[in-house]
Design goal:
Layout lengths: L8 E4 L5 H12 L3 E6 L3 H12 L6 E4 L5 H15 L4 E4 L14 H29 L2 E6 L3 H4 L5 H21 L4 E8 L11 H8 L10 H12 L10 E4 L4
Parallel strand pairs: 1-2, 1-4, 2-3, 4-5, 5-6, 6-7
Length: 246
């Protein structure tokens, strides 16, 4: 069985670093037409673009704030004007800004909700336009196990990820008639730029009180490539938990 995603146009939001960066590299190696999206991390994004261009020159680098409707619309039109289609949208852009509820100002709450949840909504709304027109497409939303289980001091983050799960299920019902599959993926604990400075969480992970550290990065890449391929059909509105707890 050959998993083939060559020539697929794959848009990955927040792909200048962390999981998004690894996804961009993986899809580029598989000869997909990868759209790298960044907002703040210009140097990292450009370095990543140069790296993947060595093995795949048919990729794009676009600066866009996923919380800004105008930026998202501009990114959408740049992609469609270049490629004429979008096969896969991976909503990966996300932030984490922790605090206990009594210590969390509204601005701290709103920032995480805006990027994680509203950003996913805006990108889904925009990029589903071309998918509806072409009557095909896949949307993969990066959620989290914490969106199902909760986590002390992360009420904004967990609420945003729970919202993504509900958004996924509803959007699958709305877009199914156009042959568009919408699914969510909840990775286990992986050290990324989002959490690598959180010594408390990493120590817990190493003690296996929660998910083992870096236990599923390769599996995550392989799984997302698989569900982006034509081998994965007829499944939508699902939440896939990729943890390694026994």
């Amino acid at each position: 069985m050959i998993v083939d995603v060559s020539n697929k146009v794959v848009v990955i939001t927040g792909s200048s670093r962390g999981i998004g960066s690894e996804l961009a590299k993986a899809f580029a190696k598989e000869k997909s037409k990868v759209v790298i999206n960044y907002f703040n991390s210009k140097d990292k994004a450009q370095k990543l673009f140069r790296e993947i261009s060595k093995c795949n020159q048919d990729c794009m680098l676009i600066k866009a704030d996923v919380t800004n409707p105008s930026d998202v619309s501009k990114m959408y039109h740049e992609v469609v004007n270049k490629y004429g289609c979008v096969d896969v949208l991976i909503n990966n852009a996300g932030v984490c800004d922790d605090n206990l509820i009594q210590m969390m100002p509204l601005e701290q709450w709103q920032k995480v909700i805006d990027v994680n949840l509203t950003g996913t909504f805006l990108c889904c709304r925009e990029f589903s336009k071309i998918m509806i027109k072409q009557k095909s497409g896949k949307i993969i939303n990066m959620a989290s196990l914490k969106g199902q289980e909760g986590a002390v001091g992360q009420i904004n983050y967990t609420a945003s990820k729970a919202g993504i799960i509900s958004l996924t299920k509803t959007l699958a019902k709305e877009l199914g008639q156009y042959n568009i599959a919408v699914n969510a993926v909840c990775p286990g604990f992986i050290v990324t730029d989002l959490n690598r400075h959180d010594k408390y969480k990493i120590e817990i992970a190493e003690n296996k009180s929660i998910l083992p550290i870096n236990s599923n990065l390769n599996e995550l890449m392989n799984f997302i490539i698989y569900i982006s391929s034509n081998l994965f059909i007829g499944i939508s509105g699902r939440v896939f938990n990729l943890d390694s707890r026994l």
